């Protein structure tokens, strides 16, 4: 049944003819002189089974311009064709929609499909009907999410133009709000991602990558500071040719961009040019940095998002500097405590350096095997080497007469010696201040558990199996291996073959067999290096 002008039914276009309309539109895409996208057309979809309605609409609105952008039309002659076009062209701004096409309510069903099934709340829908009695305005306005209702008999050329402009303006505002919302989500997601990075190089690389992805028309992003020569120096980049060194990128910067970078670093003000944009990261106690985006032209709505990202990134860099200082303080504390233990026991110095190397190698081998996946991560592997330096720090509480006795200890002396595990754990746990992911906290675990045995016969708590912290199980193997290989006041050095035989024999009783197996692989691959 037709709902067209003059009430006359027209034959539906064939799929070939409909495809021709779309192809004709696609061929009209506009490009700027330099090949960039500029002033893309507004898309208006005409959905009507009357070919004459399509022709008249194109004649009336064919030369229409809005916000310096032309209007282009897509045509669908059934609701089914309209669904396909809406799926293929997500940027359709407005729909001039007939009610009665292949069925009496085909247009109204299409509205439901657009709003509810497609979830498209942005496109503006103008319902046009030649038979208002079949779709009363009040009922339709209340029941369907449409934006305008027009009887075809009242649609003069001026009213059609006015309705189209109103629809495009409304779509423009809604699309801008949606782009802003999505942009804010990307900024906050980027800020969360950057906050999880504890390496300055990773942070800067992540920032330029997220900035380049944030702005649609950005070809590349550079993070710059003041170089030794007083000019801009690139600290990180994204989007440059992979074979182009950063120092060479400075030479290909447009002169106006390089000048604006230096001006922004000097006065802290953002600058936007035709083909570049610069925002500034201002930290609390560091020199400012300039984020330069190349490409464009950039939309007005992109600018506050870039500036917001830079504000978040500046705060993130401040936090990263605090983290680095805290980490450096922990490292200094570890070394100081290690020196203290070394002062009490002259064999400790070289021993702890070798022990740290072995512990790290074992942890990385286990990690590569995906063993202990719920405990063993990159942080663990990066931390255990230095934390193992603290394994015997509790010896500061042991009398020198026992600690440096040249012969074997008697039972009473051994009982006192064994107290060093608990002493070390207590000292380091108090010093860690409750931080569970630091050198001191892992050092506390190692200090009080590296003399535990896998079968539960160790000390100080008699823990067994996986109840012994993994770091303690790893250091136990490395500690015994290195101690037996080297002379001590109370024993001579063992041959390496004897040591390896002992490790194999004690796997499952003294040592975690998985740790022993990983260590044997490390030794076979890397050598003993003693």
TrEMBL record:
Keywords: Phosphoprotein
Compositional bias ranges of the Gly residues kind: 1-10
Gene3D superfamilies assigned: 3.40.50.2300, Hypothetical protein af1432
Protein name: DUF3369 domain-containing protein
Residues with 4-aspartylphosphate modification: 98
A GO biological process held by the record: phosphorelay signal transduction system
Ranges for region Disordered: 1-20
GO molecular-function terms, A-Z: phosphoric diester hydrolase activity
Organism: Azospirillum lipoferum
Keyword Phosphoprotein carried by entry: yes
Domain HD-GYP: 326-530
Positions of the Response regulatory domain: 43-167
């Amino acid at each position: 049944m037709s709902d067209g002008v003059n009430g006359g039914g027209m034959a539906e276009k064939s799929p070939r003819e409909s495809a021709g309309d779309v192809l004709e539109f696609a061929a009209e895409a506009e490009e700027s002189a330099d090949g960039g996208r500029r002033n893309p057309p507004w898309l208006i979809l005409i959905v009507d089974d009357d070919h004459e309605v399509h022709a008249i609409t194109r004649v009336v609105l064919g030369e229409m311009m809005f916000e310096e952008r032309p209007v282009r039309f897509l045509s669908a002659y059934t609701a089914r064709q309209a669904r396909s076009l809406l799926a293929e062209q997500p940027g359709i701004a407005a729909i001039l929609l007939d009610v009665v096409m292949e069925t009496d309510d085909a247009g109204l069903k299409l509205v439901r499909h657009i709003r509810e099934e497609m979830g498209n709340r942005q496109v503006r829908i103008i319902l046009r009907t030649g038979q208002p009695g079949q779709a009363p305005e009040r009922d339709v306005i209340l029941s369907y999410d449409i934006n305008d209702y027009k009887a075809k008999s009242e649609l003069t050329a001026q009213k059609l133009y006015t309705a189209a402009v109103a629809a495009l303006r409304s779509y423009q505002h809604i699309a801008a709000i949606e782009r802003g919302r999505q942009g804010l989500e990307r900024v906050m997601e980027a800020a969360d991602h950057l906050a999880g990075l504890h390496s300055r190089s990773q942070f800067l690389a992540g920032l330029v990558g997220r900035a380049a992805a944030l702005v649609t028309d950005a070809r590349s992003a550079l993070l710059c500071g003041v170089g030794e020569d007083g000019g801009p120096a690139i600290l990180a980049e994204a989007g440059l040719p992979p074979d182009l060194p950063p120092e060479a990128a400075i030479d290909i910067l447009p002169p106006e961009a390089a000048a604006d970078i230096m001006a922004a670093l000097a006065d802290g003000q953002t600058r936007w040019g035709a083909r570049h944009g610069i925002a500034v990261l201002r930290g609390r106690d560091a020199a400012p940095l300039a984020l330069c985006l190349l490409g464009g032209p950039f939309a007005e709505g992109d600018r506050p998002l870039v500036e917001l990202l830079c504000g978040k990134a500046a705060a993130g860099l401040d936090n990263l500097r605090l983290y680095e200082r805290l980490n450096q303080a922990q490292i200094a504390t570890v070394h100081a405590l290690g020196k203290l233990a070394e002062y009490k026991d002259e064999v400790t110095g070289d021993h702890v350096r070798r022990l740290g190397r072995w512990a790290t190698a074992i942890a990385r081998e286990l990690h590569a095997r995906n063993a202990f996946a719920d405990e063993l991560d990159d942080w663990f592997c990066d931390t255990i080497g230095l934390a193992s330096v603290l394994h015997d720090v509790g010896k500061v509480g042991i009398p020198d007469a026992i600690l440096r006795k040249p012969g074997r200890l008697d039972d009473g002396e051994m009982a006192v010696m064994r107290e060093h595990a608990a002493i070390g754990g207590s000292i380091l746990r108090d010093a860690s201040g409750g931080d569970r992911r630091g050198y001191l906290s892992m050092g506390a675990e190692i200090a009080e558990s590296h003399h535990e045995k896998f079968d539960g016969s160790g000390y100080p708590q008699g823990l067994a199996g996986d109840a012994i912290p993994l770091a303690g199980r790893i250091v136990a193997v490395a500690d015994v291996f290195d101690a037996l290989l080297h002379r001590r006041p109370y024993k001579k050095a063992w041959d390496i073959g004897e040591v390896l035989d002992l490790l194999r024999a004690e796997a499952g009783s003294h040592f975690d067999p998985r740790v022993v197996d990983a260590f044997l692989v490390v030794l076979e691959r890397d050598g003993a290096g003693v």
